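Justification of computing resources. Each target in the renewal requires a structure prediction run like the one illustrated here; the chain below, 127 residues long, is used simply to show the kind of job we budget for.
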Amino acid sequence: QVQLVESGGGLVQAGGSLRLSCAASERSGRSFSNYAMGWFRQAPGKEREFAAGISWGGDPTTYADSVKGRFTISRDNARNTVYLQMNSLKPEDTAIYYCAASLRYYADHDASEYDYWGQGTQVTISS
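Resulting structure tokens:
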């Protein structure tokens, strides 16, 4: 079982940057490096959507078209942490951002493939 805690959200102006972090506490003895990790987001009144994912070893990564070229996902397995660097932020990026862990090797765009979820961190982009 994995506990995930997100941090780094906040309010920034359009065009700005934020870096989200997700710290994992692994309680079953399985190494953090053996989880694919994903970032999802949910805007008010909308369904949760995939943003970015990273496989066990950090490669490959995968992104939603809406964030490709602006967001970068990375992981530090020694620190049990996954990051989401978000640049050139837009008002439409406003959402609660969730970190998720999957027992699969590759990060999937489908939320149902993830086994553990954090509580989320709010990101608000002002125009």
